[in-house]
Amino acid sequence: MTMLSVQHVVKEYTRGILSRKVTFRLEASFDIEQAGIVGVMGPNGSGKTTLFELITGSNAPSAGRVLCMGKNIHAVKARERDRLAIHYHQSYQVRRFARRRPDFLLQAAGSEYPAVHLFDEPQFNTQDGYIGFMLDFFRRLRDEGRLVFVCLHPTERYHLEILREICERFVFVDRGKISLFPDYVSLASDAAAAGYLGTAA
Fold first, then answer.
1. What's the whole-model pTM score?
2. Which pick of 3, 7, 78, 93 has the fewest CB atoms within 10 Å?
3. Do the beta carbons of residue 95 and residue 81 sit within 8 Å?
């Protein structure tokens, strides 16, 4: 079974009442078959957090669907979605969201522990042993058969070193467009990604 399938997902934000104008559009369509650690990068405002919210069901797509372990995440009971995919925001706080439909109209998650873990700009304290502890944690999740996303802005060189060390593939988000790369070399060879990475690469 494919662990995560993002199927022709579109998210549009608009403004205006009588004449609505699209202010931001994200498009994503990709499959990840197996457990692993995926690095996510991209400029501020490019859509990374929106992508994570769509994967965990905390944000409704304008079109398309997200299947986590074969289940449409947006058709799962709101209180059970984090049993499939969970979003940790910055200081490892779990991202919460508003319910749009009552749970009795939705299906059960069918899982007790999330298969997909999304870490959104986690804080890496440079005190002795802390970074190693977190990297071991990410690897342990992968080795237990989980899919781990780690989103970082490489504002410090060690951020990029962390991603290069632990990530087996990469996602680059740029102005709402999603690109997947099988390794860091492929990522750094992409013109848009190379421009973002700059001298840190």
1. 0.88
2. 93
3. no
